[in-house]
C-alpha cells in the first residue's frame, strides 16, 4: 500500500508541478539492473572495460536502444566515470542519461551533474555507431567539457574532440572525425556555412549530421532559435551618412521625434522633419519626395540608432568597436551585429570606424541548424517553461529529472515598489543587511549600466563587490565560481557564468561549513525578467545539490517590463509613504501579467520568424542537394559540353586531364549557383523589408512573401547552367584552361562569419505583435 501511495504521489506531483514532462517510470525501473552490473564491471581491468564497450558497439551498431542496451550503456558509463573522475554517477544522472539516449530534453537542476549525464549519453550514441555533436553556448564550455570528460570517453573506447574559433581547417576536420565533437552552436553553424561553399570534396570539414546533444537547451533552442548565422564576402566599408548622424545627434525626444510605448519605433515630428530637412539643405517636401529618396532611409536608421539603442544596455563600445550585448545572457554577443545599415548607423553615432560590409553569401538560423540532425536531445535546468516551444518547433518532449538531494532553497516573495529609485534603495539595504551576516550574495541585474550603477552605490557605503558583466566576460567562469565565498558580493548581468557551479565556500571550499551554517548563497534579482524561465535560472544559482540558500526578486510598477507590456496599472494600489513598498497583491498580479504578455509576444515573434525562414531553409536544402550533385559528380562538365560542344572540346584538348577538366567546369558552375543564391537572399531581404506595405493593402504578408519567393527560386538552377555556359562561350582559353579571374569567376577574397541581431524595429512583425499584446492584455 505504501508503495502504491508513493507511485500515485509521484504522478500527482508530475501533473501539478511539471506540466509537459514525460513519464519516468520506464527508466526508474531499469536503475536496479544498472546497479546490479556494478560488481561485475568493477572487477574488469581498464583494458577489459574498454573491450566490453567495444563488443557492445559491435552488437548495437545502427540499432535503437532497448532496455537491455540502456542498462549496459549506463552501467559501463557509471563505471568509467568512477575510474576516470572519481565520481560514481548518481541514479538521477543515470536517469538523465537515459532521457537523453531516448531523444528527450532533460531538466536537471543546477549542480545535479548535467555535464556527466551528457557525456555518458554522447558515449552511448557513439557506441551505437552514431557521430555526436555536443552543442554548447560558448567556446569556453566546449573545450572545458571535452577535456574534462576526455578520460571517461577514453575508457569507453570513444574518441572526442572540440572546435574553437582559432582552429585551422585541418584541425576542424580532425575534430569532426572524432566519435564525439564538442562545439559552440555558432562555431558548428559557421562550419556548416563554410562547407556549403566549397568547390572540392576535399575541402569539406563536417561529415553528415547524425546526433546533437544540446547543452543549455532552452538558451540554444529557444533564446537563440531565430538568430541567423551569416557568412559574408568582403565588398567595402559600409558608408553610413555621417552628415545625417550629426544632425540626428542634436534631436530631442518630445520635440523633434517621438517613440512608441514598446520602444520599437521612432519617428520625426513636424518640427524634427523641418530641422533635419533644413540641416541637409532640403525642403521638408523634398525629404519625403523622390529627389531625396536616399536620405530619408538614412535619417530613419540613424534616428533608430539614436533613439532606441542605448550604450551599455544594447551594446558596448570597446577597443574602438561596437559590440552587441546578448539580452538573454547579459554578455557580449561575440561576432554578432545588426543588419548592415543599422550597424553602420550605430558606429556613426558612436564615432568609431565603420566595419566592413559584406555581401551575404549564405545564412542559417540556429533552429534550422539543429533541424539538420536526425536525432536531437538536450539538457538544461529550465525546460518545462518552454515545453510548448520545444514540442512545437522541434517535436521534443521534456523529461524532468528529480534532484539527487531535495532542494531546500527558500524562495521569498517578491518585494514590489512604486518607483525604480525606491526599489534601488531597498536593494542596497537588503545587500547591506545580508552582507553583515557574512552570507555570500549574488545580485542579478538587467543590463551592464544597471550593474555598474549598483556597484558605484555600494562602493559609496564601503560595500565591495565584484562586477560580472559584458565588459569582462572572459573572466566570468572564474568570477562566478568564487561567488559562494563567505562575505562575497557578486553583481552579475543576467546569467553570466552559466555552466559553472557556485560552490559554497568558494572553489576550495575553505569556508563551506561556515557559509552553510549562515544560510548559504542569497540571490537577489533587481527586476523581473521578460520570461519567468530567466527568473528561475537566476534563483537556481542558489541551493545547489541540497545546499541551503535563498532567493528574492525586487520589482517596481515602473520597471521596463511593466511599462512595455502592462502599463495600465489598476487604480487603488497604495504604497508606503516612507519606503514606497507596495504590499497589495494586485501589484504582484500586475507583474505576473506583464511577464505573461512579454512571453506571449516573444513566442509569437518566434512563430512569425519561423513562418518566413522555413520556406528559405527548404529552398536552401533543395538547392544544396543539387549543389552536392555538382560537387561530387561530372554534372558540370556534362552541362557545358551539351551547351557548347565545340568550345568544350577545345578546353578538353588544352587540359588533357579529365579530372582537371571536371574540376574547372565544377568551379564555374558552383560559382554561378552560389552567386545566384546570394542574389536570392538579397532579393528576399528586400521583399521582407517592403512586405508590411502590402499589409496596408489588406494582403497577407506571408502569402505575398511566398508568391514572390517561390517563382524566383525555381529559376536558379536553369539560370546557373545558362550563366556557366555563357562563361565558357566567352572565356579566353589558355594552356591552363580557363582563366577564371578574367572570366569573371571571382569569389570573395575575404570572408567572415557573424550572427545577425534581431532588428529592434522590424516592421514586418509590428502589426502582429500589437494584436498579440492587446489580446493577451484583455485576458
UniProtKB/TrEMBL annotation:
<protein>
    <recommendedName>
        <fullName>Protein translocase subunit SecA</fullName>
        <ecNumber>7.4.2.8</ecNumber>
    </recommendedName>
</protein>
<keyword id="KW-0472">Membrane</keyword>
<dbReference type="InterPro" id="IPR000185">
    <property type="entry name" value="SecA"/>
</dbReference>
<feature type="binding site">
    <location>
        <position position="501"/>
    </location>
    <ligand>
        <name>ATP</name>
    </ligand>
</feature>
<dbReference type="GO" id="GO:0005886">
    <property type="term" value="C:plasma membrane"/>
</dbReference>
<dbReference type="InterPro" id="IPR014018">
    <property type="entry name" value="SecA_motor_DEAD"/>
</dbReference>
<dbReference type="GO" id="GO:0031522">
    <property type="term" value="C:cell envelope Sec protein transport complex"/>
</dbReference>
<dbReference type="InterPro" id="IPR011130">
    <property type="entry name" value="SecA_preprotein_X-link_dom"/>
</dbReference>
<feature type="domain" description="Helicase ATP-binding">
    <location>
        <begin position="95"/>
        <end position="253"/>
    </location>
</feature>
<dbReference type="GO" id="GO:0005829">
    <property type="term" value="C:cytosol"/>
</dbReference>
<dbReference type="InterPro" id="IPR014001">
    <property type="entry name" value="Helicase_ATP-bd"/>
</dbReference>
<dbReference type="Pfam" id="PF07516">
    <property type="entry name" value="SecA_SW"/>
</dbReference>
<dbReference type="GO" id="GO:0005524">
    <property type="term" value="F:ATP binding"/>
</dbReference>
<dbReference type="InterPro" id="IPR044722">
    <property type="entry name" value="SecA_SF2_C"/>
</dbReference>
<feature type="binding site">
    <location>
        <position position="93"/>
    </location>
    <ligand>
        <name>ATP</name>
    </ligand>
</feature>
<dbReference type="InterPro" id="IPR036670">
    <property type="entry name" value="SecA_X-link_sf"/>
</dbReference>
<dbReference type="GO" id="GO:0008564">
    <property type="term" value="F:protein-exporting ATPase activity"/>
</dbReference>
<dbReference type="InterPro" id="IPR027417">
    <property type="entry name" value="P-loop_NTPase"/>
</dbReference>
<comment type="similarity">
    <text>Belongs to the SecA family.</text>
</comment>
<feature type="domain" description="SecA family profile">
    <location>
        <begin position="9"/>
        <end position="586"/>
    </location>
</feature>
<dbReference type="GO" id="GO:0006605">
    <property type="term" value="P:protein targeting"/>
</dbReference>
<dbReference type="GO" id="GO:0017038">
    <property type="term" value="P:protein import"/>
</dbReference>
<dbReference type="Pfam" id="PF01043">
    <property type="entry name" value="SecA_PP_bind"/>
</dbReference>
<keyword id="KW-1278">Translocase</keyword>
<dbReference type="InterPro" id="IPR036266">
    <property type="entry name" value="SecA_Wing/Scaffold_sf"/>
</dbReference>
<dbReference type="Pfam" id="PF21090">
    <property type="entry name" value="P-loop_SecA"/>
</dbReference>
<keyword id="KW-0653">Protein transport</keyword>
<comment type="subunit">
    <text>Monomer and homodimer. Part of the essential Sec protein translocation apparatus which comprises SecA, SecYEG and auxiliary proteins SecDF. Other proteins may also be involved.</text>
</comment>
<feature type="domain" description="Helicase C-terminal">
    <location>
        <begin position="419"/>
        <end position="609"/>
    </location>
</feature>
<dbReference type="InterPro" id="IPR001650">
    <property type="entry name" value="Helicase_C-like"/>
</dbReference>
<keyword id="KW-0067">ATP-binding</keyword>
<keyword id="KW-0963">Cytoplasm</keyword>
<keyword id="KW-0813">Transport</keyword>
<dbReference type="InterPro" id="IPR011115">
    <property type="entry name" value="SecA_DEAD"/>
</dbReference>
<keyword id="KW-1003">Cell membrane</keyword>
<keyword id="KW-0547">Nucleotide-binding</keyword>
<dbReference type="Pfam" id="PF07517">
    <property type="entry name" value="SecA_DEAD"/>
</dbReference>
<comment type="function">
    <text>Part of the Sec protein translocase complex. Interacts with the SecYEG preprotein conducting channel. Has a central role in coupling the hydrolysis of ATP to the transfer of proteins into and across the cell membrane, serving as an ATP-driven molecular motor driving the stepwise translocation of polypeptide chains across the membrane.</text>
</comment>
<dbReference type="GO" id="GO:0043952">
    <property type="term" value="P:protein transport by the Sec complex"/>
</dbReference>
<dbReference type="GO" id="GO:0065002">
    <property type="term" value="P:intracellular protein transmembrane transport"/>
</dbReference>
<dbReference type="InterPro" id="IPR011116">
    <property type="entry name" value="SecA_Wing/Scaffold"/>
</dbReference>
<dbReference type="InterPro" id="IPR026389">
    <property type="entry name" value="SecA_Actinobact-type"/>
</dbReference>
Amino acid at each position: 500500500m505504501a508503495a502504491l501511495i508513493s507511485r500515485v504521489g509521484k504522478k500527482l506531483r508530475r501533473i501539478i508541478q511539471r506540466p509537459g514532462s514525460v513519464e519516468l517510470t520506464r527508466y526508474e525501473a531499469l536503475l536496479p539492473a544498472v546497479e546490479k552490473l556494478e560488481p561485475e564491471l568493477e572487477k574488469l581491468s581498464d583494458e577489459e572495460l574498454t573491450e566490453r564497450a567495444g563488443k557492445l558497439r559491435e552488437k548495437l551498431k545502427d540499432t535503437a536502444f532497448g532496455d537491455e542496451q540502456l542498462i549496459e550503456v549506463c552501467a559501463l558509463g557509471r563505471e568509467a566515470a568512477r575510474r576516470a573522475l572519481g565520481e560514481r554517477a548518481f541514479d538521477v544522472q543515470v536517469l538523465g542519461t537515459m532521457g537523453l539516449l531516448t531523444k528527450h530534453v532533460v531538466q536537471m537542476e543546477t549542480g545535479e551533474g548535467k555535464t556527466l549525464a551528457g557525456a555518458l549519453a554522447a558515449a552511448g550514441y557513439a557506441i551505437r555507431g552514431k557521430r555526436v555533436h555536443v552543442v554548447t553556448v560558448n567556446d569556453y564550455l566546449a573545450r572545458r567539457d571535452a577535456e574534462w570528460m576526455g578520460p571517461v570517453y577514453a575508457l569507453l573506447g570513444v574518441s572526442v574532440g572540440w572546435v574553437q574559433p582559432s582552429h585551422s581547417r585541418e584541425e576542424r576536420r580532425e575534430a569532426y572525425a572524432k566519435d564525439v565533437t564538442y562545439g559552440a552552436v555558432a562555431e558548428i553553424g559557421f562550419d556548416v556555412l563554410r562547407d556549403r561553399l566549397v568547390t572540392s570534396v576535399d575541402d569539406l570539414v563536417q561529415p553528415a549530421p547524425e546526433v546533437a546533444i544540446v547543452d543549455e537547451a532552452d538558451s540554444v533552442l529557444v533564446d537563440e532559435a531565430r538568430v541567423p548565422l551569416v557568412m559574408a564576402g568582403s565588398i567595402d566599408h559600409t558608408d553610413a551618412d555621417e552628415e545625417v548622424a550629426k544632425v540626428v545627434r542634436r534631436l530631442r525626444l518630445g520635440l523633434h521625434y517621438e517613440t512608441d510605448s514598446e520602444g520599437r519605433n521612432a519617428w520625426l515630428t513636424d518640427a524634427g522633419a523641418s530641422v533635419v530637412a533644413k540641416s541637409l539643405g532640403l525642403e521638408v517636401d523634398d525629404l519625403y519626395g523622390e529627389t531625396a529618396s536616399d536620405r530619408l532611409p538614412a535619417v530613419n536608421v540613424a534616428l533608430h540608432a539614436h533613439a532606441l539603442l542605448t550604450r551599455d544596455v544594447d551594446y558596448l563600445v570597446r577597443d574602438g568597436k561596437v559590440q552587441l550585448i546578448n539580452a538573454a545572457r547579459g554578455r557580449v554577443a561575440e561576432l554578432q551585429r545588426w543588419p548592415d545599415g543599422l550597424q553602420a548607423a550605430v558606429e556613426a553615432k558612436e564615432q568609431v570606424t565603420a566595419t566592413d560590409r559584406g555581401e551575404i553569401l549564405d545564412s542559417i538560423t540556429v533552429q534550422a541548424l539543429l533541424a539538420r540532425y536526425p536525432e536531437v536531445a538536450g539538457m538544461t535546468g529550465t525546460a518545462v517553461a518552454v515545453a510548448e516551444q520545444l514540442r512545437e518547433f522541434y517535436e521534443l518532449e521534456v523529461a524532468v529529472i528529480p534532484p539527487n538531494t531535495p532542494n531546500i532553497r527558500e524562495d521569498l516573495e517578491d518585494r514590489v515598489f512604486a518607483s525604480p529609485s525606491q526599489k534601488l534603495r531597498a536593494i542596497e539595504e537588503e545587500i547591506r543587511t545580508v552582507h553583515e551576516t557574512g552570507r555570500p550574495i549574488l545580485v542579478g541585474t538587467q543590463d551592464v549600466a544597471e550593474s555598474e550603477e549598483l556597484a558605484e552605490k555600494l562602493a559609496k557605503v564601503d560595500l565591495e563587490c565584484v562586477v560580472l558583466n559584458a565588459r569582462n566576460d572572459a573572466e566570468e567562469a572564474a568570477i562566478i565560481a568564487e561567488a559562494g565565498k563567505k562575505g562575497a558580493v557578486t553583481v552579475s548581468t543576467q546569467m553570466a557564468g552559466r555552466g559553472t557551479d557556485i560552490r559554497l565556500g568558494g572553489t576550495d571550499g575553505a569556508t563551506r561549513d561556515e557559509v552553510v551554517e549562515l544560510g548559504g548563497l542569497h540571490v537577489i534579482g533587481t527586476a523581473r525578467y521578460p520570461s519567468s524561465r530567466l527568473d528561475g535560472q537566476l534563483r537556481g544559482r542558489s541551493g545547489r545539490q541540497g545546499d541551503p540558500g535563498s532567493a528574492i526578486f525586487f520589482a517596481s510598477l515602473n520597471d521596463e517590463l511593466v511599462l512595455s507590456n502592462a502599463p495600465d496599472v489598476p487604480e487603488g494600489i497604495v504604497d508606503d509613504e516612507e519606503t514606497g513598498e507596495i504590499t497589495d497583491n494586485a501589484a504582484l498580479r500586475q507583474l505576473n501579467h506583464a511577464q505573461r504578455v512579454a512571453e506571449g509576444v516573444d513566442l509569437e515573434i518566434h512563430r512569425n520568424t519561423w513562418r518566413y525562414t522555413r520556406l528559405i531553409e527548404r529552398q536552401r536544402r533543395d538547392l544544396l542537394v543539387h549543389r552536392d550533385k555538382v560537387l561530387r559528380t561530372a554534372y558540370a562538365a556534362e552541362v557545358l559540353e551539351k551547351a557548347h560542344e565545340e568550345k568544350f572540346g577545345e578546353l578538353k584538348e588544352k587540359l588533357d586531364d579529365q579530372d582537371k577538366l571536371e574540376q574547372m567546369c565544377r568551379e564555374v558552375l558552383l560559382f554561378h549557383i552560389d552567386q545566384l543564391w546570394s542574389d536570392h537572399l538579397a532579393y528576399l531581404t528586400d521583399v521582407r523589408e517592403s512586405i508590411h506595405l502590402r499589409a496596408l493593402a489588406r494582403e497577407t504578408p506571408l502569402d505575398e512573401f511566398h508568391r514572390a519567393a517561390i517563382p524566383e527560386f525555381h529559376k536558379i538552377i536553369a539560370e546557373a547552367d545558362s550563366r556557366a555556359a555563357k562563361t565558357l562561350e566567352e572565356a579566353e582559353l589558355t594552356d591552363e584552361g580557363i582563366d577564371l579571374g578574367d572570366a569573371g569567376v571571382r569569389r570573395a577574397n575575404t570572408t567572415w562569419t557573424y550572427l545577425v541581431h534581431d532588428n529592434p524595429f522590424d516592421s514586418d512583425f509590428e502589426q502582429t505583435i500589437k494584436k498579440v499584446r492587446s489580446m493577451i492584455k484583455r485576458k
